[in-house]
Protein backbone atom coordinates (compact mmCIF):
# COMPACT_ATOMS: atom_id res chain seq x y z
CA UNK A 1 0.00 0.00 0.00
CA UNK A 2 1.40 3.37 -0.95
CA UNK A 3 0.44 6.75 0.31
CA UNK A 4 1.17 9.88 -1.67
CA UNK A 5 1.29 13.43 -0.44
CA UNK A 6 -2.14 15.01 -0.15
CA UNK A 7 -4.03 11.73 -0.31
CA UNK A 8 -7.20 11.23 1.65
CA UNK A 9 -7.33 7.52 2.33
CA UNK A 10 -9.96 5.68 4.35
CA UNK A 11 -9.29 2.32 5.98
CA UNK A 12 -12.59 0.49 6.09
CA UNK A 13 -13.29 -2.86 7.66
CA UNK A 14 -15.08 -4.76 10.43
CA UNK A 15 -13.71 -4.64 13.97
CA UNK A 16 -10.68 -6.84 14.50
CA UNK A 17 -9.23 -6.43 11.01
CA UNK A 18 -6.31 -4.36 12.26
CA UNK A 19 -7.27 -0.90 11.04
CA UNK A 20 -6.33 0.79 14.28
CA UNK A 21 -3.23 -1.36 14.62
CA UNK A 22 -2.07 -0.29 11.17
CA UNK A 23 -2.68 3.34 12.12
CA UNK A 24 -0.67 2.94 15.31
CA UNK A 25 2.14 1.33 13.36
CA UNK A 26 2.23 4.25 10.94
CA UNK A 27 2.39 6.59 13.94
CA UNK A 28 5.29 4.59 15.32
CA UNK A 29 3.41 3.79 18.53
CA UNK A 30 3.83 0.04 17.99
CA UNK A 31 6.41 -1.77 15.85
CA UNK A 32 5.19 -3.90 12.90
CA UNK A 33 5.51 -7.65 13.57
CA UNK A 34 6.58 -8.25 9.97
CA UNK A 35 7.23 -6.04 6.97
CA UNK A 36 8.09 -2.39 7.23
CA UNK A 37 6.73 1.09 7.02
CA UNK A 38 8.97 3.42 5.11
CA UNK A 39 8.86 7.18 4.99
CA UNK A 40 10.44 9.60 2.53
CA UNK A 41 14.11 10.20 3.24
CA UNK A 42 13.24 13.69 4.45
CA UNK A 43 13.61 13.45 8.26
CA UNK A 44 10.79 15.93 8.79
CA UNK A 45 8.30 13.46 7.27
CA UNK A 46 8.01 11.18 10.26
CA UNK A 47 8.03 14.04 12.74
CA UNK A 48 5.05 15.78 11.22
CA UNK A 49 2.31 13.41 12.31
CA UNK A 50 -0.98 14.39 13.90
CA UNK A 51 -3.14 11.76 15.57
CA UNK A 52 -6.83 11.92 16.44
CA UNK A 53 -8.10 9.15 18.72
CA UNK A 54 -11.55 7.59 18.96
CA UNK A 55 -12.19 9.62 22.08
CA UNK A 56 -11.25 13.29 22.22
CA UNK A 57 -8.45 12.34 24.67
CA UNK A 58 -8.16 15.80 26.18
CA UNK A 59 -6.49 16.64 29.45
CA UNK A 60 -9.47 17.50 31.67
CA UNK A 61 -7.42 19.80 33.89
CA UNK A 62 -6.38 22.05 31.02
CA UNK A 63 -8.36 24.61 29.03
CA UNK A 64 -9.11 24.05 25.34
CA UNK A 65 -6.26 26.38 24.36
CA UNK A 66 -3.76 24.62 26.61
CA UNK A 67 -4.84 21.26 25.24
CA UNK A 68 -4.26 22.47 21.71
CA UNK A 69 -0.94 24.08 22.66
CA UNK A 70 0.35 20.84 24.17
CA UNK A 71 2.25 19.44 21.15
CA UNK A 72 3.98 22.79 20.65
CA UNK A 73 4.90 23.11 24.31
CA UNK A 74 6.22 19.55 24.40
CA UNK A 75 8.43 20.48 21.47
CA UNK A 76 9.85 23.34 23.50
CA UNK A 77 7.98 26.31 22.08
CA UNK A 78 7.49 29.07 24.64
CA UNK A 79 4.09 29.29 26.23
CA UNK A 80 2.95 32.60 24.75
CA UNK A 81 3.73 31.70 21.18
CA UNK A 82 2.19 28.26 21.60
CA UNK A 83 -0.94 29.85 23.07
CA UNK A 84 -1.23 32.27 20.16
CA UNK A 85 -0.97 29.44 17.64
CA UNK A 86 -3.49 27.38 19.63
CA UNK A 87 -6.00 30.23 19.65
CA UNK A 88 -5.59 30.62 15.90
CA UNK A 89 -6.10 26.89 15.35
CA UNK A 90 -9.20 26.84 17.56
CA UNK A 91 -10.67 29.57 15.38
CA UNK A 92 -9.98 27.39 12.32
CA UNK A 93 -12.14 24.63 13.79
CA UNK A 94 -14.85 27.16 14.65
CA UNK A 95 -14.18 27.26 18.36
CA UNK A 96 -13.22 30.92 18.67
CA UNK A 97 -14.28 32.14 22.09
CA UNK A 98 -13.89 28.75 23.76
CA UNK A 99 -10.15 29.09 24.45
CA UNK A 100 -10.57 29.16 28.22
CA UNK A 101 -13.29 26.51 28.45
CA UNK A 102 -12.47 23.28 30.23
CA UNK A 103 -13.27 20.04 28.39
CA UNK A 104 -16.15 19.10 30.68
CA UNK A 105 -17.97 22.28 29.68
CA UNK A 106 -17.80 21.32 25.99
CA UNK A 107 -20.14 19.04 24.02
CA UNK A 108 -18.90 15.83 22.39
CA UNK A 109 -18.57 17.44 18.98
CA UNK A 110 -16.73 20.46 20.40
CA UNK A 111 -14.31 18.21 22.25
CA UNK A 112 -13.58 16.42 18.99
CA UNK A 113 -12.93 19.77 17.31
CA UNK A 114 -10.43 20.60 20.05
CA UNK A 115 -8.81 17.23 19.45
CA UNK A 116 -8.56 17.92 15.71
CA UNK A 117 -7.16 21.38 16.38
CA UNK A 118 -4.51 19.81 18.61
CA UNK A 119 -3.57 17.34 15.87
CA UNK A 120 -3.30 20.13 13.27
CA UNK A 121 -1.55 22.77 15.37
CA UNK A 122 1.91 21.46 14.47
CA UNK A 123 1.01 21.72 10.76
CA UNK A 124 1.59 18.00 10.23
CA UNK A 125 2.01 16.53 6.77
CA UNK A 126 0.21 13.38 7.82
CA UNK A 127 -2.98 13.28 9.84
CA UNK A 128 -3.98 9.91 11.30
CA UNK A 129 -7.56 9.57 12.49
CA UNK A 130 -8.84 6.53 14.37
CA UNK A 131 -12.65 6.43 14.06
CA UNK A 132 -12.77 9.97 15.38
CA UNK A 133 -16.49 10.57 14.85
CA UNK A 134 -17.81 7.12 15.77
CA UNK A 135 -19.18 8.23 19.13
CA UNK A 136 -20.94 11.33 17.83
CA UNK A 137 -24.54 11.77 16.72
CA UNK A 138 -25.20 11.87 13.00
CA UNK A 139 -25.88 15.58 12.71
CA UNK A 140 -22.62 16.44 14.45
CA UNK A 141 -20.77 13.81 12.43
CA UNK A 142 -21.96 15.25 9.09
CA UNK A 143 -20.88 18.73 10.11
CA UNK A 144 -17.48 17.53 11.24
CA UNK A 145 -17.11 15.54 8.00
CA UNK A 146 -17.69 18.71 5.99
CA UNK A 147 -15.39 20.78 8.15
CA UNK A 148 -12.65 18.18 7.94
CA UNK A 149 -12.90 18.15 4.13
CA UNK A 150 -12.68 21.94 4.03
CA UNK A 151 -9.58 21.92 6.22
CA UNK A 152 -8.07 19.26 4.02
CA UNK A 153 -8.82 21.18 0.82
CA UNK A 154 -7.22 24.31 2.30
CA UNK A 155 -4.10 22.76 3.71
CA UNK A 156 -3.58 19.59 1.66
CA UNK A 157 -2.12 17.41 4.36
CA UNK A 158 -2.28 13.63 3.88
CA UNK A 159 -5.03 11.86 5.79
CA UNK A 160 -5.43 8.23 6.83
CA UNK A 161 -8.90 7.87 8.26
CA UNK A 162 -10.01 4.67 10.00
CA UNK A 163 -13.75 4.05 9.99
CA UNK A 164 -16.29 1.27 9.96
CA UNK A 165 -18.87 3.37 8.21
CA UNK A 166 -19.19 2.81 4.47
CA UNK A 167 -21.00 6.13 4.03
CA UNK A 168 -18.37 8.07 5.88
CA UNK A 169 -15.50 6.48 3.95
CA UNK A 170 -17.07 7.26 0.56
CA UNK A 171 -17.98 10.79 1.54
CA UNK A 172 -14.54 11.68 2.86
CA UNK A 173 -11.93 9.73 1.00
CA UNK A 174 -10.53 9.61 -2.49
CA UNK A 175 -9.17 6.15 -1.80
CA UNK A 176 -11.15 3.59 0.18
CA UNK A 177 -9.05 0.63 1.31
CA UNK A 178 -11.15 -2.35 2.37
CA UNK A 179 -9.64 -4.64 5.01
CA UNK A 180 -10.68 -8.11 6.22
CA UNK A 181 -10.14 -9.82 9.55
CA UNK A 182 -8.45 -13.11 10.62
CA UNK A 183 -5.77 -12.53 9.53
CA UNK A 184 -6.03 -8.75 9.17
CA UNK A 185 -5.21 -7.77 5.60
CA UNK A 186 -5.97 -5.34 2.78
CA UNK A 187 -8.31 -6.89 0.23
CA UNK A 188 -9.30 -4.13 -2.16
CA UNK A 189 -8.90 -0.51 -2.94
CA UNK A 190 -11.59 1.62 -4.56
CA UNK A 191 -11.35 5.15 -5.85
CA UNK A 192 -13.87 7.92 -5.54
CA UNK A 193 -12.96 10.30 -8.38
CA UNK A 194 -12.66 14.01 -7.70
CA UNK A 195 -15.23 15.00 -10.34
CA UNK A 196 -17.89 13.03 -8.41
CA UNK A 197 -16.76 14.24 -4.99
CA UNK A 198 -16.68 17.91 -5.84
CA UNK A 199 -20.36 18.14 -6.71
CA UNK A 200 -22.14 20.27 -4.11
CA UNK A 201 -24.80 17.71 -3.22
CA UNK A 202 -22.46 14.75 -3.21
CA UNK A 203 -23.96 13.17 -0.10
CA UNK A 204 -27.37 12.78 -1.75
CA UNK A 205 -26.21 12.24 -5.34
CA UNK A 206 -26.65 9.08 -7.39
CA UNK A 207 -22.91 8.64 -7.83
CA UNK A 208 -22.48 8.71 -4.03
CA UNK A 209 -25.05 5.91 -3.71
CA UNK A 210 -23.32 3.96 -6.49
CA UNK A 211 -19.93 4.26 -4.78
CA UNK A 212 -21.46 3.22 -1.46
CA UNK A 213 -22.98 0.15 -3.10
CA UNK A 214 -19.65 -0.76 -4.69
CA UNK A 215 -17.75 -0.39 -1.41
CA UNK A 216 -20.41 -2.32 0.44
CA UNK A 217 -20.13 -5.20 -2.05
CA UNK A 218 -16.36 -5.19 -1.69
CA UNK A 219 -16.73 -5.32 2.08
CA UNK A 220 -19.27 -8.15 1.93
CA UNK A 221 -16.96 -10.13 -0.35
CA UNK A 222 -14.06 -9.54 2.04
CA UNK A 223 -16.11 -10.76 4.99
CA UNK A 224 -17.26 -13.84 3.14
CA UNK A 225 -13.74 -14.78 2.08
CA UNK A 226 -12.62 -14.56 5.71
CA UNK B 1 -26.09 33.01 46.47
CA UNK B 2 -26.95 30.26 48.92
CA UNK B 3 -29.55 27.93 47.55
CA UNK B 4 -32.32 26.30 49.54
CA UNK B 5 -30.57 22.92 49.43
CA UNK B 6 -27.33 24.40 50.71
CA UNK B 7 -29.09 26.20 53.53
CA UNK B 8 -30.82 22.96 54.49
CA UNK B 9 -27.49 21.17 54.51
CA UNK B 10 -26.26 23.43 57.28
CA UNK B 11 -29.53 24.12 59.01
CA UNK B 12 -30.83 20.55 59.37
CA UNK B 13 -27.84 19.09 61.26
CA UNK B 14 -27.56 22.26 63.36
CA UNK B 15 -31.16 21.94 64.54
CA UNK B 16 -30.75 18.22 65.21
CA UNK B 17 -27.54 18.85 67.17
CA UNK B 18 -29.19 21.56 69.25
CA UNK B 19 -32.18 19.33 70.07
CA UNK B 20 -29.90 16.46 71.06
CA UNK B 21 -27.85 18.72 73.35
CA UNK B 22 -31.03 20.13 74.91
CA UNK B 23 -32.36 16.61 75.52
CA UNK B 24 -29.04 15.64 77.08
CA UNK B 25 -29.05 18.68 79.38
CA UNK B 26 -32.63 18.03 80.38
CA UNK B 27 -31.97 14.32 81.09
CA UNK B 28 -28.99 15.12 83.31
CA UNK B 29 -31.02 17.68 85.21
CA UNK B 30 -34.23 15.64 85.47
CA UNK B 31 -32.53 12.43 86.56
CA UNK B 32 -30.12 14.26 88.85
CA UNK B 33 -27.10 12.49 87.35
CA UNK B 34 -23.94 13.55 89.18
CA UNK B 35 -21.32 15.32 87.07
CA UNK B 36 -18.65 12.65 87.76
CA UNK B 37 -20.86 10.18 85.84
CA UNK B 38 -22.22 12.39 83.09
CA UNK B 39 -21.99 16.19 83.00
CA UNK B 40 -24.45 18.22 80.94
CA UNK B 41 -23.38 20.19 77.88
CA UNK B 42 -23.63 23.50 79.70
CA UNK B 43 -21.23 22.35 82.38
CA UNK B 44 -18.85 20.99 79.75
CA UNK B 45 -18.90 24.34 77.98
CA UNK B 46 -18.24 26.13 81.28
CA UNK B 47 -15.31 23.81 82.02
CA UNK B 48 -13.94 24.36 78.56
CA UNK B 49 -14.03 28.12 79.08
CA UNK B 50 -12.59 27.90 82.61
CA UNK B 51 -9.74 25.52 81.72
CA UNK B 52 -9.09 27.08 78.31
CA UNK B 53 -5.59 28.21 79.30
CA UNK B 54 -4.26 24.74 80.01
CA UNK B 55 -6.43 22.94 77.42
CA UNK B 56 -5.43 25.29 74.61
CA UNK B 57 -1.75 24.55 75.27
CA UNK B 58 -2.51 20.82 74.91
CA UNK B 59 -4.61 21.46 71.82
CA UNK B 60 -1.69 23.27 70.23
CA UNK B 61 0.65 20.36 71.00
CA UNK B 62 -1.72 17.82 69.44
CA UNK B 63 -2.43 20.00 66.41
CA UNK B 64 1.28 20.56 65.82
CA UNK B 65 2.05 16.84 65.93
CA UNK B 66 -0.92 16.06 63.69
CA UNK B 67 0.02 18.58 61.04
CA UNK B 68 3.72 17.75 61.10
CA UNK B 69 2.87 14.05 60.68
CA UNK B 70 0.41 14.84 57.88
CA UNK B 71 2.94 17.02 56.07
CA UNK B 72 5.63 14.34 56.29
CA UNK B 73 3.15 11.63 55.25
CA UNK B 74 1.92 13.68 52.28
CA UNK B 75 5.38 14.53 50.96
CA UNK B 76 6.93 11.10 51.57
CA UNK B 77 3.82 9.32 50.26
CA UNK B 78 3.86 11.43 47.11
CA UNK B 79 7.60 10.98 46.54
CA UNK B 80 7.46 7.23 47.07
CA UNK B 81 4.43 6.92 44.77
CA UNK B 82 6.34 8.81 42.06
CA UNK B 83 9.26 6.45 42.58
CA UNK B 84 6.87 3.50 42.24
CA UNK B 85 5.53 4.96 39.00
CA UNK B 86 9.05 5.15 37.59
CA UNK B 87 10.03 1.59 38.34
CA UNK B 88 7.96 -1.53 38.66
CA UNK B 89 10.80 -3.32 40.49
CA UNK B 90 10.97 -0.69 43.21
CA UNK B 91 7.20 -0.81 43.58
CA UNK B 92 7.08 -4.58 43.85
CA UNK B 93 9.90 -4.70 46.39
CA UNK B 94 8.66 -1.91 48.65
CA UNK B 95 4.87 -2.02 48.51
CA UNK B 96 4.43 -5.14 50.72
CA UNK B 97 6.38 -3.39 53.49
CA UNK B 98 4.14 -0.36 53.21
CA UNK B 99 1.23 -2.76 53.73
CA UNK B 100 2.95 -4.27 56.80
CA UNK B 101 3.30 -0.77 58.19
CA UNK B 102 -0.39 -0.18 57.58
CA UNK B 103 -1.86 -3.39 58.99
CA UNK B 104 0.20 -3.50 62.19
CA UNK B 105 -1.95 -1.80 64.85
CA UNK B 106 -0.34 1.42 65.95
CA UNK B 107 -1.25 0.74 69.61
CA UNK B 108 0.93 -2.37 69.46
CA UNK B 109 4.04 -0.68 68.10
CA UNK B 110 3.72 2.72 69.78
CA UNK B 111 5.38 1.49 73.05
CA UNK B 112 8.37 0.26 71.08
CA UNK B 113 8.76 3.51 69.20
CA UNK B 114 8.52 5.46 72.43
CA UNK B 115 11.29 3.29 73.95
CA UNK B 116 13.54 3.61 70.90
CA UNK B 117 13.12 7.31 70.24
CA UNK B 118 14.36 9.52 73.05
CA UNK B 119 12.56 12.65 72.04
CA UNK B 120 8.91 12.13 72.95
CA UNK B 121 7.62 14.56 70.35
CA UNK B 122 9.55 12.81 67.63
CA UNK B 123 8.15 9.48 68.82
CA UNK B 124 4.58 10.82 68.68
CA UNK B 125 5.21 12.24 65.24
CA UNK B 126 6.49 8.90 63.97
CA UNK B 127 3.40 7.09 65.30
CA UNK B 128 1.02 9.59 63.70
CA UNK B 129 3.01 9.45 60.47
CA UNK B 130 2.83 5.63 60.26
CA UNK B 131 -0.96 5.78 60.42
CA UNK B 132 -1.32 8.67 57.99
CA UNK B 133 1.21 7.50 55.43
CA UNK B 134 -0.48 4.55 53.74
CA UNK B 135 -3.69 6.08 52.30
CA UNK B 136 -1.65 8.77 50.56
CA UNK B 137 0.88 6.30 49.20
CA UNK B 138 -1.66 3.78 47.97
CA UNK B 139 -4.08 6.34 46.53
CA UNK B 140 -1.39 8.28 44.72
CA UNK B 141 0.10 5.07 43.36
CA UNK B 142 -3.27 4.05 41.92
CA UNK B 143 -3.72 7.58 40.56
CA UNK B 144 -0.37 7.56 38.80
CA UNK B 145 -1.14 4.17 37.28
CA UNK B 146 -4.57 5.10 35.98
CA UNK B 147 -3.40 7.72 33.52
CA UNK B 148 -5.40 7.64 30.27
CA UNK B 149 -3.59 5.23 27.89
CA UNK B 150 -4.44 7.32 24.84
CA UNK B 151 -3.00 10.44 26.45
CA UNK B 152 0.16 8.46 27.21
CA UNK B 153 0.32 7.47 23.53
CA UNK B 154 -0.22 11.07 22.53
CA UNK B 155 2.66 12.23 24.71
CA UNK B 156 4.84 9.50 23.23
CA UNK B 157 3.86 10.51 19.71
CA UNK B 158 5.05 14.04 20.36
CA UNK B 159 8.30 12.79 21.82
CA UNK B 160 7.65 13.90 25.40
CA UNK B 161 10.44 13.21 27.89
CA UNK B 162 9.90 11.10 31.02
CA UNK B 163 9.89 14.27 33.05
CA UNK B 164 7.27 15.92 30.79
CA UNK B 165 5.05 12.85 31.04
CA UNK B 166 5.31 12.88 34.82
CA UNK B 167 4.89 16.60 35.32
CA UNK B 168 2.32 17.39 32.66
CA UNK B 169 0.32 14.17 32.55
CA UNK B 170 0.75 11.70 35.40
CA UNK B 171 0.80 14.11 38.33
CA UNK B 172 -2.27 16.09 37.25
CA UNK B 173 -4.20 12.84 36.62
CA UNK B 174 -3.19 11.54 40.06
CA UNK B 175 -4.19 14.78 41.80
CA UNK B 176 -7.80 13.78 42.68
CA UNK B 177 -6.55 10.45 44.07
CA UNK B 178 -3.84 12.17 46.11
CA UNK B 179 -6.34 14.65 47.54
CA UNK B 180 -8.78 11.87 48.45
CA UNK B 181 -5.90 10.11 50.25
CA UNK B 182 -5.00 13.34 52.00
CA UNK B 183 -8.53 13.72 53.34
CA UNK B 184 -8.45 10.22 54.84
CA UNK B 185 -4.96 10.75 56.22
CA UNK B 186 -5.88 14.04 57.88
CA UNK B 187 -8.25 12.24 60.24
CA UNK B 188 -5.88 9.32 60.67
CA UNK B 189 -2.94 11.56 61.61
CA UNK B 190 -5.03 12.98 64.45
CA UNK B 191 -6.02 9.49 65.60
CA UNK B 192 -2.38 8.38 65.41
CA UNK B 193 -1.24 11.36 67.46
CA UNK B 194 -3.94 10.77 70.12
CA UNK B 195 -3.21 7.03 70.37
CA UNK B 196 0.51 7.67 70.69
CA UNK B 197 -0.10 10.28 73.39
CA UNK B 198 -2.22 7.78 75.31
CA UNK B 199 0.58 5.22 75.18
CA UNK B 200 3.31 7.73 75.96
CA UNK B 201 1.31 9.36 78.73
CA UNK B 202 3.66 12.33 78.86
CA UNK B 203 3.24 14.57 81.89
CA UNK B 204 4.03 18.23 82.35
CA UNK B 205 2.84 21.26 80.44
CA UNK B 206 3.95 20.13 76.99
CA UNK B 207 1.50 17.26 76.71
CA UNK B 208 -1.34 16.86 74.28
CA UNK B 209 -5.10 16.48 74.57
CA UNK B 210 -4.98 12.71 75.07
CA UNK B 211 -2.96 13.18 78.20
CA UNK B 212 -5.51 15.72 79.46
CA UNK B 213 -8.20 13.09 78.96
CA UNK B 214 -6.19 10.46 80.85
CA UNK B 215 -5.33 12.87 83.64
CA UNK B 216 -8.92 14.06 84.05
CA UNK B 217 -10.05 10.43 84.15
CA UNK B 218 -7.67 9.61 87.00
CA UNK B 219 -8.82 12.69 88.90
CA UNK B 220 -12.51 12.03 88.19
CA UNK B 221 -12.81 15.47 86.55
CA UNK B 222 -15.29 14.15 84.06
CA UNK B 223 -16.44 17.58 82.72
CA UNK B 224 -12.81 18.39 81.89
CA UNK B 225 -12.46 15.02 80.21
CA UNK B 226 -15.46 15.84 78.03
CA UNK B 227 -14.07 19.31 77.31
CA UNK B 228 -10.82 17.78 76.01
CA UNK B 229 -12.86 15.29 73.99
CA UNK B 230 -14.84 18.15 72.41
CA UNK B 231 -11.55 19.74 71.37
CA UNK B 232 -10.30 16.46 69.84
CA UNK B 233 -13.48 16.02 67.79
CA UNK B 234 -13.52 19.68 66.83
CA UNK B 235 -9.96 19.43 65.58
CA UNK B 236 -10.83 16.36 63.50
CA UNK B 237 -13.82 18.11 61.95
CA UNK B 238 -11.76 21.23 61.24
CA UNK B 239 -9.03 19.18 59.54
CA UNK B 240 -11.57 17.34 57.41
CA UNK B 241 -13.30 20.55 56.37
CA UNK B 242 -10.04 22.32 55.58
CA UNK B 243 -8.83 19.44 53.41
CA UNK B 244 -12.20 19.16 51.66
CA UNK B 245 -12.05 22.86 50.88
CA UNK B 246 -8.50 22.51 49.55
CA UNK B 247 -9.59 19.61 47.37
CA UNK B 248 -12.61 21.53 46.10
CA UNK B 249 -10.55 24.60 45.23
CA UNK B 250 -7.97 22.59 43.33
CA UNK B 251 -10.41 20.40 41.42
CA UNK B 252 -13.58 22.43 40.95
CA UNK B 253 -12.75 23.55 37.44
CA UNK B 254 -12.21 20.13 35.94
CA UNK B 255 -12.94 17.12 38.09
CA UNK B 256 -16.34 15.45 38.46
CA UNK B 257 -15.92 14.98 42.23
CA UNK B 258 -15.91 18.75 42.65
CA UNK B 259 -18.74 19.39 40.22
CA UNK B 260 -20.84 22.23 41.55
CA UNK B 261 -23.66 21.44 39.15
CA UNK B 262 -23.33 24.65 37.16
CA UNK B 263 -22.13 22.82 34.07
CA UNK B 264 -24.99 20.37 33.91
TrEMBL record, chain A:
The entry sums up its family as follows: Belongs to the ABC transporter superfamily.
Q: Which residues form a coiled coil?
A: none
The record's annotation in InterPro entries points to: AAA+_ATPase, ABC_transporter-like_ATP-bd, ABC_transporter-like_CS, ABC_transporter_ATP-bind, P-loop_NTPase
What Gene3D superfamilies does the database record attribute to this sequence? P-loop containing nucleotide triphosphate hydrolases
Going by the UniProt record, its keywords in alphabetical order are: ATP-binding, Nucleotide-binding, Transport
Q: GO molecular-function annotation terms?
A: ATP binding; ATP hydrolysis activity
Superkingdom of origin organism: Bacteria
Organism expressing this protein natively: Roseococcus suduntuyensis
This protein's record includes keyword ATP-binding: yes
Pfam families named in the record: ABC_tran
Q: What is this protein called?
A: NitT/TauT family transport system ATP-binding protein
Taxonomic placement: Bacteria, Pseudomonadati, Pseudomonadota, Alphaproteobacteria, Acetobacterales
Question: Domain named ABC transporter: which ranges?
Answer: 1-206
Automatic annotation (TrEMBL), chain B:
PANTHER family reported for this sequence: ABC TRANSPORTER PERMEASE PROTEIN, ALKANE SULFONATE ABC TRANSPORTER-RELATED, MEMBRANE SUBUNIT
Please give the GO cellular component terms listed in this UniProt entry: plasma membrane
Q: Which PROSITE patterns match?
A: ABC_TM1
State the species of origin.
Roseococcus suduntuyensis
Keyword terms of this UniProt record: Cell membrane, Membrane, Transmembrane, Transmembrane helix, Transport
Segments forming domain ABC transmembrane type-1: 59-247
Q: What is this protein called?
A: NitT/TauT family transport system permease protein
Asked if the Swiss-Prot or TrEMBL record annotates the protein with the keyword Transmembrane helix, the reply is yes
Q: What is its main location?
A: membrane
* Protein localization: Cell membrane
Any stretches that span the bilayer, and where are they? Answer: 54-82, 94-117, 123-144, 190-214, 226-251
Q: How does it sit in the membrane?
A: Multi-pass membrane protein
Q: Which GO terms describe its biological process?
A: transmembrane transport
So what family is this one in? Answer: Belongs to the binding-protein-dependent transport system permease family.
Amino acid sequence: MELARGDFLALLGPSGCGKSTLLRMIAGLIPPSAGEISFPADPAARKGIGFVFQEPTLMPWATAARNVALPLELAGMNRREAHARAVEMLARVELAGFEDAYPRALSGGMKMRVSIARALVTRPRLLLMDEPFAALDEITRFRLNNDLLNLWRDERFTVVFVTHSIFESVFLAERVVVMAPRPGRVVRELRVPAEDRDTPEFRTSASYAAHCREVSHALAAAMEAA
Amino acid sequence: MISRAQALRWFAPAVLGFLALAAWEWAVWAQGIPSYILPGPVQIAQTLARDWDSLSVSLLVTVQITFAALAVAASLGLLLAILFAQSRVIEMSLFPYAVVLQVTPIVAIAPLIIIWVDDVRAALLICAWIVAFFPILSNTTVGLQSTDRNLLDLFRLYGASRWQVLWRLKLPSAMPYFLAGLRISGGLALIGAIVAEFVAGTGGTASGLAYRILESGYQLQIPRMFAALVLVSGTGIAIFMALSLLSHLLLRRWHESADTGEHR
